[in-house]
Amino acid sequence: MSLNMKTLTQALAKTAAVIEKKVQTTVQEVTGPKPLQDYELIDQIGSAGPGLAWRLYSARARDPSRQHQYPVVCVWVLDKRVLSEARMRAGLTKAAEDSFLDLIRTDAAKLVRLRHPGVVHVVQALDESKNAMAMVTEPLFASVANTLGNVDNIPNVPKELRGMEMGLLEVKHGLLQIAESLDFLHNHAHLIHRAISPENIFITLSGAWKLGGFGFAISASQTPGDSSNLQAFHYAEYDVEDSILPLQPSLNYTAPELVRSTASSAGCPSDIFSFGCLAYHLIARKPLFDCHNNVKMYMNTLTYLSSDAFSSIPSELVPDLQRMLSPNESFRPTAMDFTGSPFFRNDTRLRALRFLDHMLERDNMQKSEFLKALSDMWKDFDSRVLRYKVLPPLCAELRNVVIQPMILPMVLTIAESQDKNDFEQSTLPALVPVLTAAAGETLLLLVKHTDLIVNKTSQEHLISHVLPMIVRAYDDTDARIQEEVLKKSVSLSKQLDAQLVKQVVLPRVHGLALKTTIAAVRVNALLCLGDMVNRLDKHSVLDILQTIQRCTAVDRSPPTLMCTLGVANSIFKQYGVEFVAEHVLPLLMPLLTAQQLNVQQFAKYMLFVKDMLHKIEEKRGVAVTGSGIPEAKLSSAVNGLQTDALRTSSNTVATATVATATKSNSTWDEDWGSQNKGNCLFYPQFY
Q: Could you tell me how many helices (H) and strands (E) the chain has, helices first?
């Protein structure tokens, strides 16, 4: 029986494919959906979608090459096991769970296909395993539902969401962005969302409000008239708590035509009604309908909706909001008509935010005029608006070198309110090109804000981006930049490795002290050296003394001399009197004769020198009187160590008078010598 090689090859290939698929399925069941394999979860930031079933996590790609678009992303995770357990506790059927998961899949599929700045951008499509679903989107802050206080499915609520209240300006701006997204959805994508509600509106990490939650969306071409595949939602006529597996939109935000028993006539006005409910909730800080999915309560509230219900709404918005919430679909405005309300048009700050939204489209002349106006008003914005509405577009414009000097001060000032993680994620990437190429006034401004940047930057970014800018500042010929960088050198050095300080920072500080012809630069260089002594070894301190000696050889101006004294005092505090006696006093003594010192400055020099000499006397255990007569003193400790005499003899007296020399004409040196010989028994450690 001959072997058919072709048949055998095909059989082996088929078997291999089956094995490969089985292996992939097994691996997936162990490791989870692909997004969980490709991305490392950092923290849960929020929840979203129907029943807030999705958990939203900030995450970072495990492969660095994936980070080119978003350094941080949002990974959406739905745990099927948790959902199944909750379903069984609630007494729901497995069919309801399957229908809900199909709704999630539909939502994710439509989200991938829709590409618009006002729709959440999908980075990695939905993938699922036996136990979980996951997908990856652009970085998000939270869902609007979370910002309104609904933090279900968030075990540990982020501090940013605790007690959070958005200001009216941020709400206005967000509503305008959603209106634009709805306009795209209705007039370009030809879709009707049917589920506009807080859990389906998202705030990105850059502050933009975007649409999601397309599980209930239908094509606009299905209505009106085509009701064969379109049925009304059916809600109970009694109070029902929100289901963990909602198979229809929240009744609190659903248009009346979608809840009637007859076939649905959903159209674009249905989304406008839902949008009006959302706007009401955000502005009044309470929902217009709070009916617990009870359709009777819903219809009763709608029927008897009076002007009193709008008492907490700004008067200029009331007419437009009432039209949006009209039971009659034909009375409702379009999304863009809504944006024409005086509530939006008459707000100067809102117009400024709108300009920022489209700033990249404007020419430099328009941008310059706007930035001049913005400089007078931006400090009136609250911190959230500055962080999420103003900062991102300004950062995007930093690449424009023409208007960069106008933008950079605002960016750096706003960045002061950011924490380290937020700064590194959102602001630093925009600053890196500026740090790399900065010169002139821009470099001066950055150096002035060095402490801000250093304190909010990791060691890696500090060395790769900030330190090269600092080096350029040292090497710049502008005295203002040199002075400023010297003032920042000490705080910078505290963040750097000691070896890096010795190799990069110290040589340049020495160079400025020696080469400059500007007195202020030399003084700041010497002050910098003095402040750095406590972090340097003795060899580096000797280099400082050599630099000072060269400086004072050509410059004995009072500022230079007093800085020298300051350095001497720092060295004493760090290395003690022995080091000062051997290396510092020989440098200071000639400076005592400098005629440039006034009386007070000379007195400070003398006080330091006398103090050092007094400490030397104390260390030697000898005090010299005004007449030149030495007196030996027994000290309980010399530089922290007890004398040998105290350690070896318990009957040594506390003090002893040394006999004076018998020769009346002996010199001071001879007296010192005779005392050494006479007292070596009592103070052997000094000889």
A: 32, 12
Cα angle at 594 between 591 and 595, to 5 degrees? 165
Provide the pLDDT for residue 418. Answer: 87
Phi, psi of 655 (to 5 degrees): -140, 155
- DSSP classification of residue 535: G
* Token pair in block for residue 355: 């300009």
What confidence score (pLDDT) does residue 658 get? 32
Residue 498 pLDDT: 87
Q: Tell me the C-alpha distance between 510 and 503, whole Å.
A: 12
Q: Give the Å distances, CA to CA, from 254 to 224, 269, 302.
A: 18, 11, 11
What is the distance between the alpha carbons of residues 144 and 283, in angstroms, rounded to a whole number?
13
Question: Do 55 and 76 contact (CB within 8 A), yes or no?
Answer: yes
Cα–Cα distances in angstroms (integers) from residue 508 to residues 267, 484, 489, 557, in the given order: 70, 14, 10, 22
Mean pLDDT to the nearest integer, 146-156: 92
- The DSSP element (H or E) to which 665 belongs, if any, is none
Exposure string for 627-643, b = 16+ CB within 10 A, e = fewer: eeebbbbebeebeeeeb
| Number of residues in the chain | 687
**pLDDT grade, residue 110 (50/70/90)?**
very high
Angle, CA of 345, 351 and 352, to the nearest 5°: 165
Residue-wise pLDDT for 54-86, tens only, equals 999 999 999 887 766 788 999 999 999 999 998
Q: Rounded to an integer, what distance in angstroms lies between the CA atom of residue 134 and that of residue 76?
A: 5
Determine contact, residues 197/252, Cβ cutoff 8 Å.
yes
| pTM of the predicted model as reported, rounded to 2 decimal places | 0.74
For residues 559, 564, 565 and 568, what is the CA-based torsion angle, rounded to 10 degrees? 160
What single letter denotes the amino acid at residue 428? Answer: L
Residue 614 CB partners (closer than 8 Å, separation 6+): none
The CA–CA distances, whole Å, from 223 to 151, 229, 269, 270, 607 equal 35, 10, 12, 11, 96
Closest of 491, 486, 549, 543 to residue 512, by C-alpha:
486
Rounded distance between C-alpha atoms, residue 633 and residue 509, angstroms: 44
Q: Supply the pLDDT for residue 6.
A: 64
Which DSSP state fits 261? S
Cβ(71)–Cβ(60) under 8 Å? yes
Q: Are 329 and 339 in contact (CB under 8 A)?
A: no
- How far apart CA 316 and CA 675 sit, in angstroms, is 100
- What are the structure tokens assigned to 488, written together? 């920042």
Q: Tell me the β-bridge partners of 79.
A: 132
Q: Running DSSP on this structure, what letter comes out for residue 69? A: T
Among candidate residues 374, 445, 462, 346, the one with its CA nearest the CA of residue 405: 445
HEC string for 344-360 = HHCCHHHHHHHHHHCHH
Separation of alpha carbons 638 and 624, rounded Å: 18
* Cα torsion angle, 550, 551, 555, 560, sign: negative
Distance in angstroms (rounded) separating the CA atoms of residues 142 and 151? 10
Residue 79 Cα to chain centre, angstroms: 30
